[in-house]
């Protein structure tokens, strides 16, 4: 094996420096500030702070509203991940079979990813608006009383659909790439051996998509935890009666609305630990079942 060396010893550090600087400024520095503030109790204007140790964490973990938000987050995360990945996989397999116009269909399916989360939320809110929404009108005609502003389950369903729709395009891209990487000879051999339809997909195609599925599962879980704030804020605002107040939205409510800076910082640290732990568990246990060849 030939060893590659850089004649200039400084060049590698210069090339890596921009990424390191961005990481320090936009990740490590805010994270360190959150940890520091979680150990302090500050007045609403940030003029005076007192060291309280882990008191903020004890207050948060003993708060019934926080435990309620935790349950809401788990339900929202599971539903959004399953819906976004399931629909994306279905669309990717359908497009992979299209012979004519593949590029056109793929372009249409990729467009939603360019929509901002808040805009995506407003689009679905308009369609399901109880007063003037087209889809809400169709539901009422079929005898379904629809009002996500009053019904917590309907509000949860609305933000799940909006969040999943926003992420489907991202998942679709990777599933299409994964399907294209599968040798066609394997599919043809399976067809010759008599494997048809769903059986061929679940026994041959889907196992070969395991690396892509594993990667997307990690990305979608992180997305549902953090990147759905704009959708929740624009559609339900955490309501009705905190039915859609996820952990990330509760951090905003307590910190920016109620000005409880210490407990808000403690919640953000807990949320960061949860996401890191979930990602580590997935890589530690689930990745063992993934076959890369």
Automatic annotation (TrEMBL):
<comment type="similarity">
    <text>Belongs to the binding-protein-dependent transport system permease family.</text>
</comment>
<feature type="transmembrane region" description="Helical">
    <location>
        <begin position="12"/>
        <end position="31"/>
    </location>
</feature>
<protein>
    <recommendedName>
        <fullName>sn-glycerol-3-phosphate transport system permease protein UgpA</fullName>
    </recommendedName>
</protein>
<dbReference type="InterPro" id="IPR000515">
    <property type="entry name" value="MetI-like"/>
</dbReference>
<keyword id="KW-0997">Cell inner membrane</keyword>
<feature type="domain" description="ABC transmembrane type-1">
    <location>
        <begin position="70"/>
        <end position="282"/>
    </location>
</feature>
<dbReference type="InterPro" id="IPR050809">
    <property type="entry name" value="UgpAE/MalFG_permease"/>
</dbReference>
<feature type="transmembrane region" description="Helical">
    <location>
        <begin position="201"/>
        <end position="226"/>
    </location>
</feature>
<comment type="function">
    <text>Part of the ABC transporter complex UgpBAEC involved in sn-glycerol-3-phosphate (G3P) import. Probably responsible for the translocation of the substrate across the membrane.</text>
</comment>
<feature type="transmembrane region" description="Helical">
    <location>
        <begin position="107"/>
        <end position="127"/>
    </location>
</feature>
<keyword id="KW-0813">Transport</keyword>
<dbReference type="InterPro" id="IPR035906">
    <property type="entry name" value="MetI-like_sf"/>
</dbReference>
<keyword id="KW-0472">Membrane</keyword>
<feature type="transmembrane region" description="Helical">
    <location>
        <begin position="265"/>
        <end position="286"/>
    </location>
</feature>
<feature type="transmembrane region" description="Helical">
    <location>
        <begin position="74"/>
        <end position="95"/>
    </location>
</feature>
<comment type="subunit">
    <text>The complex is composed of two ATP-binding proteins (UgpC), two transmembrane proteins (UgpA and UgpE) and a solute-binding protein (UgpB).</text>
</comment>
<keyword id="KW-1003">Cell membrane</keyword>
<keyword id="KW-0812">Transmembrane</keyword>
<feature type="transmembrane region" description="Helical">
    <location>
        <begin position="155"/>
        <end position="180"/>
    </location>
</feature>
<keyword id="KW-1133">Transmembrane helix</keyword>
<dbReference type="Pfam" id="PF00528">
    <property type="entry name" value="BPD_transp_1"/>
</dbReference>
């Amino acid at each position: 094996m030939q060893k590659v060396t850089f004649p200039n010893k400084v060049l590698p550090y210069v090339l890596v420096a921009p990424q390191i600087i961005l990481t320090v400024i936009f990740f490590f520095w805010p994270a360190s500030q959150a940890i520091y503030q979680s150990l302090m109790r500050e007045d609403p204007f940030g003029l005076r702070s007192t060291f309280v140790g882990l008191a903020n964490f004890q207050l948060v973990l003993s708060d019934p509203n926080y435990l309620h938000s935790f349950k809401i987050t788990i339900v929202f995360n599971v539903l959004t991940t399953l819906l976004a990945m399931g629909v994306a996989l279905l669309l990717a397999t359908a497009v992979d079979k299209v012979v004519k116009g593949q590029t056109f269909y793929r372009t249409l399916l990729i467009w939603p990813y360019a929509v901002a989360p808040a805009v995506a939320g407003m689009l679905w809110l308009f369609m399901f608006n109880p007063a003037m929404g087209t889809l809400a009108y169709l539901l009422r005609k079929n005898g379904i009383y629809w009002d996500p502003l009053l019904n917590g389950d309907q509000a949860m369903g609305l933000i799940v659909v909006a969040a999943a729709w926003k992420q489907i395009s991202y998942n679709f891209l990777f599933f299409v790439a994964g399907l294209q990487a599968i040798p066609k000879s394997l599919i043809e051999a399976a067809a010759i051996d008599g494997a048809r339809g769903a059986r061929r997909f679940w026994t041959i195609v889907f196992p070969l998509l395991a690396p892509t599925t594993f990667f997307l599962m990690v990305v979608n879980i992180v997305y549902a935890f953090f990147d759905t704030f704009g959708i929740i804020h624009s559609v339900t605002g955490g309501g009705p009666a905190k039915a859609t107040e996820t952990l990330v939205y509760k951090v905003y409510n307590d910190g920016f609305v109620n000005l409880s800076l210490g407990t808000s910082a403690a919640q953000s640290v807990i949320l960061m630990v949860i996401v890191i732990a979930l990602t580590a568990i997935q890589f530690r246990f689930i990745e063992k079942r993934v076959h890369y060849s």
